[in-house]
Amino acid sequence: MQKTTILFALLALLAACTPLPPTDLSQASLIPYPVAVTTGGERFALQAQTTIYAPPALEALGTYLVETLTAATRQPFALEVGSPDPAGKGIHLALDANQPELGAEGYQLTIAEKRIDLVASQPAGIFRGSQTLRQLVPLVSRDSSNRYWDIPTGTITDYPHYAYRGAMLDVSRHFFGVPDVKRFIDLIAAFKINFLHLHLADDQGWRIEIKSWPQLTTIGGRTAVGGGPGGFYTQDDYRELVRYAQARFVTIVPEIDMPGHTNAALASYPELNCNGIAPPLYTGTEVGFSTLCTDQEITYQFIDDVVRELAALTPGPYLHIGGDESHVTDLEDYIPFINRVQEIVHTHGKQMIGWDEVAHASLSKSSVVQYWAQAENALRGTSQGAKVILSPAHKVYLDMQYDSTTHLGLHWAAYIEVDSAYNWSPETLVPGLNEDDILGLESPLWTETVTTMADIEYLVFPRLLGHAELGWSPVAVRNWAQYRVRLGAHAPRLEAMGINFYRSKRVDWAR
Ligand code: TNX
Predict the structure, then answer these.
(1) What is the Cα–Cα distance from 373 to 444, expressed in whole angstroms?
(2) Residue of 80, 240, 325, 427 with catalytic role
(3) Which of 128, 158, 188 represents a domain boundary (last residue)?
(4) Are 308 and 427 part of one and the same domain?
């Protein structure tokens, strides 16, 4: 035997005898951390021969899982649709109507040595559970052999704390096209975010085609902060975004901000202005200087048309009507305006969401107040029976700088480091708000200073992971000291996803 052959034989023997790394499912760096995890102590070896089984109702989700696992391992997995051998090997997806306690989005993941079962009562739960499974697949195979990816055995039972876990993208101040928004949807869905709020109109740009008022986009969509070319979604583009989001169990909430933040609309149609004169397009970053003409009938005809067309594009329950910072609308005009717009939203079969100022109006119980600045407005809303989405600017505004040295973003509400974004309790933030009053959390990204996808990613990641955990995980499993370790371990995963994230010094990032 040649020396090199002996050397290889010895190395192979050594590799076979080296104990595999310990495997403890409860130590997995999952974000958001699940409700309950038990450890089996063994391994499921994912490999090219592993088959994924799905009933016909879950075929699309089976395909999604195959694509996800293939992207993670570069192995071509097979999907079998139908009723597989109930005792067979492989990864089995199933719906079980007898597990109502899992709710609309919960799932159970049972990982044994030869078989993985992902069970949910609804398809959304299978999607959420697939994200957990994706995070359990190691980035490198056992012994770098490219043959086995070991997943620790055990069980995970999981469901969300809050029904609404959102992210907002401001596509008005700077416009982001369909491919960027699709990537944004993929990235947020990976952490079990289930609502994408699109801020579609503001002073600087109107971004959604409205067929009955075409100048909103041909004029109002022409520019952006800084004077760049702007842009807008055609209704077909928008339908494509809605479809893409739906396939990832993300509901899009469209926002048309009014009566303030409306310069782009006012510039597009002179008749929307009280003086009948269209102002020029605006490319600065001031707020609070524009208003629709609240005592003119044409204003409500305009809003009815916009809401009708938007509602027809929106399968989700909510339409967001803005309502913030209407500094040049008198409160005595603002209140009847919001009341009337709420009626219009109802006429078109939707529930209204508004920034917290809308709580000055007479809210119906189906309406939702998005708390960003004034806690008393949140309470004003709940005292009328409305629910609240928590978006406290000093904790979840993704356009706030991390610290004074990070270059993107603003700091009017706070500098928000990664620990500050995580280390607070939605349950106790606003004294007087009950758990039942809180629909959930949303993290807005305003884009005055944000012009590229790389900028978006830098401000969103990793803070959104912390918000995702605050929205999904039960209070008992949330803990900064442990979260910090899980987040650090996520660095190679975020890199593998090509995410340009902020490497906070408060986290020990894995290499
Ligand atoms: C306040 S938050 C605004 C936005 C700005 C943001 C910048 C809110 C409801 N209004 O118009 O873009 O601050 O951080």
Answers:
(1) 13
(2) 325
(3) 158
(4) yes
